[in-house]
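Q: Okay, next protein. This is Integrase from Roseospira goensis. I've checked the sequence twice, so it should be correct. Can you predict the 3D structure?
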Amino acid sequence: MRVQRITKKSTLDPLRKEPPDKRLLIWESETRGFGVRVTETGKVTFVFQYRDATGTSKRVTIGEFGQPWTVDMARDRAVDMQRAVAEGRDPREEKREARNALTIGEVVTRYLDEGPTDKPGKKASSWTTDRSNLTRHVMPLLGNRPARSVTKDDVARWLADVVEGKTATVERTGKARGVARVQGGPGTAARALAVFGAMMEWAHGKGIVPGNPVAEVKPPKAKKKDRFLSESEVSRLNRAMLSLVDDLDMLRPASADCFRLLMLTGCRKEEVASLRWEYIDLERGLLNLPDSKTGAKVVVLALPAVDMLAALRERRTEAPWVFPARRGDGPIGGLQKDWEMVREWAGVEGVRIHDLRHSFASFAAADGASLLLIGKTLGHRRAETTQRYAHLADDPVRQVANAAAGRIARALTSKSGERGGTRGTGGAPKGAPEKIFSRKHVSPLVMRASERYVVDTFKGD
């Protein structure tokens, strides 16, 4: 055993060139416990020796010289271990725990497997979204990292990478010709950060990690995407749908009906796309949804929506869905692709399907409805609270729904948005009759109904 100042030039290089006949230990003269072990083959390894809280002598390996340890790096680690011993910790036990610790990828697997049991109130659709965020944005960049070693700075760098689009890709979904386009950007990063943070908080509660470094990182600011339709744009969208269904046979009638019902109710896309006839109470003008983003709720239907559903019921099939899939037994799908076609044909840019919900609220606000009643109309409040109004003749929630849907209905029947019959200019040929629904696919009842609610709603307006 030798004791000296350990340097690369004077200590390690000569021993690597001329290895000792047997294993040699050299201890640092200035940093207590820091040493280097040299084998007969010339392999040089840095070590640290100490006594734990019970007085037992222990030795822990820091790392092999040059991979990537330098003398200064190893000495600094030895100083850190000295500090840990002074605080009552055991460096060798900590290293063993780190070696056996779960990676971020393994924590993701456990969270998605055990989380639904630990969080029974969380919806299955929310877990599907969490799975997408974790597997598409967290695992590709941090999946192999030990979960206990992830720091605030690591999370910040990961977040910047997601914003820059480093996790963006195109992948197969498993469906026929199905692909998913995974994108980056501030909005995507903010959503992934929220899911990542929830997982790490769960892991902290399970004792898997010592803390939640994600909670210390602020989400990036994303541009707001809310977009509200004008009455002219509503009219243009409807004329585009009529043209695509009646004249060109490019759009499914069910898709057009879905979009119109979204406009007239302010519901979320999935609430309408998966709507079943058993949920509809036309006599009372209600949708009794057993499940939604906010749980079970009751939607108060305006007269235009009631009339539309009454017309659709006349031609219902044996399928339980109001809008059944073209093939198979499920509800309608592929609405996003259809919406993009309608939007392009109408020349209305930057409008998402979800913006139809926002637009319903904006029409209600324009009529002077209070934010409280708009919230009730859209189902932002508790379902029981909204349901209390349903039996009243002078129902303020229904008044808001009628006023908003009535304005949309007027826009749907208006010619003000007409811009000719070419692609991207409003759809229907100039001089086309005012109508909301395709005459090819809907009974005359809805034509009479549309005239009735437009006149009734705007009498004296």
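A: Here is a summary of the prediction. The chain has three domains: 2-100, 104-216, 231-457. The longest strand covers residues 44-51.
Q: Noted. On to the next one.
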